[in-house]
Amino acid sequence: MNPTAGALRALGLDIQFDEHETFVSDAESIQGYASWGSNDSHAPGKPFYGEIDGQLYPGTFAPRSVVIGFVSSDARSFGPPHYGQSLVADLIRLGAAGATGHVFEPMLAGVPRPHILLPAYAQGVRAVEAYYRSIPYLGWTNVYIGDPLMTIPRASKGRNSDRDDDGVTDSVDNCSAIPNPQQRDTNGDGFGNICDADVDGDGIVTTSWGDIYPLTRCGDVEWIGLAVQNGTYDPNYDLNGDGKVNNLDVSIATLNLFLAPGPSGQARSPRR
After folding, report:
1. Residue 205 has what DSSP assignment?
2. Which end of the chain has fewer CB within 10 Å, C or N?
3. Is the pTM higher than 0.85?
4. Is the dihedral of CA 209, 213, 216, 220 positive or negative?
5. Among candidate residues 178, 34, 14, 38, the one with its CA nearest the CA of residue 98
6. What is the pLDDT along the chain (272 residues), one digit of tens a residue?
7. Long-range own/partner contacts, residues 244-247 (CB < 8 A, 24 or more apart)
């Protein structure tokens, strides 16, 4: 969500990027929303969205708003008599005009990526196109509910060329779509670590879907996962720069699956 916040701020939009433990409630005129729903340990309890104990979760929605749910089965139904996980249908009932969801476990690799979906939609891309841009591959578990051709007026910050709002202009930013004011680039290839999960250097972030034998089969996600498993430290695998190679780095790689590193204003030669 941090890259999403930076990209939307760079478009001149007012955002609420909540990093507190409290589940957001009583927000007004929400245009775009992303949440772990019932997976959030601080959720208000069933039914998770709507009016609960005098508060409205997450709040009211603006016209043509879109929502993203990170829940394994939040599109399984429009209203069962008994709740398991939260439902994106309840967000539609609250006024959201479009919603992403899952009818079954998509795994983290298959969820929509908000740092792609929401900025694209904010720049006038049709809702369904923004959605399909944001998912790494097509699968039966992923669904979009709502008007597929829905758009909103294009947001633009004019001549400001710092699209991720990290204080580094795009022309020299080694990761121009994800905030990285430190510009950390441990392998010196012109791509900042935070947007360079292509640790084997073949030009795209890959996975072997957990297969690691022989090692030549490993994808980038597996290489980082093996470092976590073995407790070894490689600065090129430390994508977020916290001094550790851990599951956060695996998650970052997974959310960049099938994407090329970057974009970057410093890349000196094309990846192969």
Report:
1. -
2. C
3. no
4. positive
5. 34
6. 878 888 888 888 888 777 888 999 999 999 999 999 999 999 999 999 999 999 999 999 999 999 999 999 999 999 877 889 999 999 999 999 999 999 999 988 899 999 899 999 999 999 999 999 999 888 899 999 999 999 999 876 555 688 888 899 999 999 998 889 999 999 999 999 999 999 999 999 999 999 988 888 999 999 999 999 999 999 999 999 999 999 999 999 998 999 999 999 987 654 44
7. none
